[in-house]
Design a protein that fits this description.
Helix content is 83%, strand content 0%. It has one helix spanning 2-74. The chain starts with a helix and ends in a 14-residue tail after the last helix.
Length: 88
C-alpha cells in the first residue's frame, strides 16, 4: 500500500511540473514578442512626434519669412531676401 502512495506523490509532482511548463513556455514565448511590439510602437510614436515638431518649426519659419517679406514690401522693397544659411 505504501508503494502506491509514493507512486501517487511522484505522479502529482510530475503533473504539477507539467502544468508549470504548460504555463511557463507560452509566457516565455509571448513576453519577448510583447516587449518588442511595445518598443516598436513607442519608437513609431516618437518618430511621429518628431515629424510633427519638425512641421511646426517649418510652419513657424514660413510665417516668420512671410512677416519679414510683408514688412519689406510695406517699406517699398520688392527684392526677396533669402537667408544665406538656413541651418541657423
Amino acid at each position: 500500500m505504501r508503494h502506491l502512495h509514493m507512486s501517487n506523490k511522484y505522479n502529482l509532482n510530475n503533473a504539477i511540473g507539467l502544468v508549470c511548463l504548460l504555463i511557463a513556455v507560452p509566457v516565455v514565448i509571448w513576453l519577448p514578442r510583447y516587449i518588442h511590439e511595445r518598443k516598436l510602437h513607442e519608437r513609431e510614436a516618437a518618430q511621429a512626434q518628431a515629424c510633427i515638431d519638425n512641421l511646426k518649426r517649418i510652419d513657424a519659419a514660413a510665417n516668420q519669412f512671410a512677416k519679414e517679406k510683408f514688412a519689406q514690401m510695406k517699406q517699398g522693397s520688392n527684392a526677396v531676401v533669402l537667408p544665406t544659411n538656413i541651418s541657423q
